[in-house]
TrEMBL record:
One of its GO terms (molecular function) is pyridoxal phosphate binding. PANTHER family: PROLINE SYNTHETASE CO-TRANSCRIBED BACTERIAL HOMOLOG PROTEIN, PYRIDOXAL PHOSPHATE HOMEOSTASIS PROTEIN. Its cofactor is pyridoxal 5'-phosphate. Keywords: Pyridoxal phosphate. This is Pyridoxal phosphate homeostasis protein.
Length: 228
């Protein structure tokens, strides 16, 4: 079942790319495995998936230890506390929720001890909702310059979570704002910033229309969760 759902998502992504006049392979899928246990993750591994998004560091660590024999890339997509920097530096291959300097400094320190580097995306708040986290758009260019100076962190792009709305125009405006910000940041910092992580199970086709290069898909691949 999971393999079939993943295939269906891939087909939808390819169709959305074609509709947007983009190459079908120009958008990567990040399967979001948060809250799902080892049995479901094993099914995903059996289907050939090797890269997973997780919200909570402790959950990522537990899964990484259970599946230590697999070459898995663990991606943190949830709000990250600085006191979790040690586990992130040890187990994660990417953080998509980088949103403040103290977190970057904590990760840089731990990564130096681990002799590792980490890809990071800056999470940007493009929605007015109080529940959404992320850095203000105005602060991002200067923050990227700070990241650029840290040898262990590789800023690869931007991430956002769109407003929770049924309105296509409202949701797409969030994605368009991130795309425009990426261009501004490229011009100001000289960084390539190839990744725009935007779009989830309910809105990823709209995100692809607005230039997303990576969509974070949970329920459309793994099924409905019992909790968030």
């Amino acid at each position: 079942m999971l393999a079939q759902r993943y295939k269906e998502v891939k087909n939808r992504v390819e169709k959305a790319c074609i509709k947007a006049k983009r190459a079908p392979d120009s958008v990567r899928i990040l399967p979001v495995s948060k809250t799902f246990g080892p049995d479901v993750l094993q099914e995903a591994l059996d289907a050939g998936l090797r890269r997973f998004g997780e919200n909570k560091v402790q959950e990522m660590k537990q899964k990484a230890e259970v599946f230590a024999e697999y070459p898995i890339d663990w991606v943190i997509i949830g709000y990250l506390q600085t006191n979790k920097a040690k586990e992130v530096a040890r187990y994660a291959s990417e953080v998509q929720s980088m949103d403040r300097l103290d977190l970057a400094l904590a990760l840089d320190k731990r990564l130096q001890l681990e002799n590792r580097t980490l890809d990071v995306l800056v999470q940007v708040k493009t929605s007015p909702e109080q529940t959404k986290t992320g850095m203000s758009a105005e602060a991002v260019p200067a923050f990227l310059q700070e990241l650029k100076a840290m040898q262990t962190l590789r800023p690869m792009g931007l991430m956002t979570v769109a407003e929770n709305s049924d309105s296509e125009a409202t949701v797409r405006a969030c994605f368009a704002a991130l795309r425009h910000l990426r261009q501004q940041c490229q011009d100001q910092t000289g960084l390539a910033l190839p990744t725009l992580s935007m779009g989830m199970s309910g809105d990823f086709e709209w995100a692809i229309q607005e230039g997303s290069t990576e969509v974070r898909i949970g329920s459309a691949i793994f099924g409905q969760r019992d909790y968030a």
